[in-house]
Design goal:
It is a single chain. With 439 residues, this protein is an alpha+beta fold. The protein is 47% helix and 10% strand. The strands form 3 sheets. It has a 5-stranded mixed sheet with strand order 1-2-3-4-5.
Length: 439
C-alpha cells in the first residue's frame, strides 16, 4: 500500500503495476485513496473503520472528480470522515440510497444537474424521459412512453440487458437515428453517474452504437423547392411551423436555433439576428444578416404572437416561435414530426409535400449548396453556417483575425433570398453569379 502526497501531476501519471490494481494512499488526508486499475481507470476511495471491519467508500472517478477544489477528492474525503466522526456510516448510507434510487430518479437528477445546462438539453430530456424513465418532470407516467422504459428498475439492480432493452425498443419501431441518439444520451448519463459515484461501474463500456447511419447528402433542386414551397401553404400544420421551415431555408441556420429565437436576439430595423453563445452549437456568438424576406416572415410571426397574447390576456412571450402554453419555444423535434406527418406513400414511393422525403437539415444543406452555385466561396458560406472548422479553426482566426465577414454574409443571404423568391414564384432556376456578371 504505497503512501504518497498526492499531486495533480502524480494522479495523471498513476498506473497499475504488474497487471494488478494499485492503491495510492494520500499522506495529507487520512484514508483518501487513489485506486489505479489494470484496465486504466482511476477512482477515489475513502478507507475508514477498524482493521477487522475496514470500509471502502467510493467517492467518484478520476479525472471527473479532481484532486483539489470544493468538490474534489480531498474535500469529499474530509466531508465523509466528518460523518464517520459523528457516528454515521457513509458506506451503509450509499447502499441504502442505491437500493432506493430508481432509473427514473437517475434520469431526473441527470437532466436537472447536467443535461439542461447544454444547448440541446431539452431534446436530451425528452428522449430520456420518453424512452428510458417513462415519466415526465413531475414524475407522472407518460402516455406515449416507449415499450422499453426501465424507470422502475433499481440502480442497485441495473444491468446492461436493461439498457439493451431500452435501445432495442426504439430501434424496433424503425427510429434508427433516434436509437443512436438515445444510446449516446444513455452512455453520457451512465458515465456521469459513475463519475459522481452513483454507479460503481460503467455499464455501457464496450457497447456499440445500435445502427450505422449513412451521412445524408440530400439537396433540394430548384424545382423541388418550388413544389415544396407551394405545397407548404396547404400543409396540415400550424402557420408557426410553416414559418420555421421557410426560415431554415432562407437563413441556412439550424432548426433548433430558428425555433429558439427570442425577441432580444433580433434587431429588425438593422435586419440582424444575433445567436448568443449559449444557443450556438460551437458556443460562439453568431450574427445572421436577415434578408427582407426573412424580416417579413419574422414580423408576421411577431404580429400573430402579439395578437394571441392579447386575446389570452397574457404577457408577450419571450420566444418568437412559442410552443404550447408559450412557456418554451417550439422544439426542433416538433418541427421534424410535423414534416414527417406530411409523408405519403403512392405506388410504393414516399413523398413529403410533393417531393422526395427531406428534413429540416436538408434545407440548410440546400441553401448552402445553392449559395455556392451562385458563386460564393465555401469559406464565406462556412461563415454563414457558423462552422467552427472554417471560421475559428486556427490560432490566427481564433485570436488575431477579428473581421466578421458581415458584408459578405449579407450579400450571400440577400442574393440567395432573391433567387429563392424567383424560384417559388416563377419556378425559375438559380442563375450563377458568375453568369450574371458576364452578362
Amino acid at each position: 500500500m504505497p503512501q504518497i502526497e498526492l499531486t495533480d501531476k502524480f494522479c495523471q501519471s498513476a498506473k497499475a503495476t504488474s497487471g494488478r490494481k494499485v492503491d495510492y494512499f494520500d499522506t495529507l488526508v487520512r484514508g483518501l485513496v487513489l485506486r489505479a486499475s489494470a484496465g486504466g481507470t482511476k477512482s477515489w476511495y475513502l478507507v475508514y473503520g477498524p482493521p477487522a471491519k475496514r470500509q471502502w467508500l467510493k467517492l467518484g472517478s478520476y479525472p471527473e472528480i479532481p484532486l483539489g477544489g470544493d468538490r474534489g477528492g480531498r474535500q469529499r474525503a474530509r466531508d465523509a470522515r466528518a460523518k464517520v466522526g459523528n457516528g454515521g456510516d457513509p458506506v451503509a448510507d450509499k447502499k441504502s440510497l442505491a437500493a432506493s434510487q430508481t432509473v427514473a430518479d437517475l434520469v431526473d437528477n441527470y437532466v436537472k444537474r447536467h443535461a439542461l445546462t447544454r444547448r440541446s438539453g431539452g431534446e436530451i430530456a425528452r428522449r430520456l424521459r420518453k424512452n428510458v424513465s417513462g415519466r415526465d418532470a413531475d414524475g407522472k407516467k407518460l402516455e406515449d412512453s416507449s415499450a422499453g422504459c426501465i424507470g422502475d428498475v433499481k440502480l442497485s439492480e441495473l444491468h446492461r440487458r436493461d439498457i439493451t432493452k431500452t435501445i432495442d425498443a426504439v430501434k424496433d419501431r424503425g427510429a434508427h437515428v433516434e436509437a443512436n441518439r438515445l444510446f449516446e444520451d444513455v452512455r453520457a448519463m451512465i458515465r456521469w453517474a459513475r463519475g459522481r459515484g452513483d454507479l460503481d461501474q460503467n455499464l455501457v463500456e464496450g457497447m456499440r452504437k445500435p445502427t450505422e447511419t449513412v451521412e445524408r447528402n440530400r439537396v433540394l433542386s430548384p424545382d423541388e423547392i418550388s413544389t415544396m414551397w407551394g405545397a407548404l401553404a396547404n400543409a396540415d400544420m400550424r402557420e408557426l411551423t410553416r414559418r420555421v421551415i421557410r426560415l431554415c431555408l432562407i437563413t441556412a441556420q439550424r432548426v433548433g436555433e430558428v425555433c429558439g429565437i427570442t425577441g432580444d436576439e433580433l434587431d429588425l430595423d438593422a435586419a440582424l439576428w444575433t445567436i448568443p453563445p449559449i444557443r450556438s452549437k460551437n458556443k460562439r456568438e453568431h450574427a445572421v444578416p436577415l434578408s427582407p424576406l426573412a424580416v417579413k416572415i419574422i414580423r408576421d410571426q411577431l404580429a400573430d404572437v402579439k395578437a394571441l397574447a392579447e386575446r389570452k390576456g397574457r404577457a408577450m412571450p419571450t420566444f418568437v416561435f412559442p410552443g404550447p402554453g408559450a412557456h418554451a419555444p417550439v422544439t426542433g423535434a416538433a418541427i421534424a414530426k410535423a414534416i414527417k406527418r406530411e409523408e405519403i406513400m403512392k405506388r410504393g414511393k414516399a413523398t413529403i409535400l410533393g417531393v422526395e422525403p427531406w428534413t429540416s437539415h436538408d434545407l440548410r444543406r440546400s441553401a448552402a449548396t445553392h449559395m455556392e452555385e451562385l458563386g460564393f466561396s465555401p469559406f464565406i458560406i462556412s461563415h454563414v453556417l457558423n462552422h467552427v472548422s472554417a471560421t475559428k479553426a486556427s490560432i490566427t482566426s481564433r485570436v488575431y483575425a477579428r473581421y466578421d465577414y458581415m458584408k459578405e454574409k449579407r450579400e450571400a443571404l440577400d442574393l440567395w433570398a432573391d433567387r429563392l423568391a424567383g424560384i417559388v414564384s416563377h419556378g425559375a432556376d438559380i442563375v450563377p453569379l458568375r453568369s450574371m456578371a458576364a452578362s
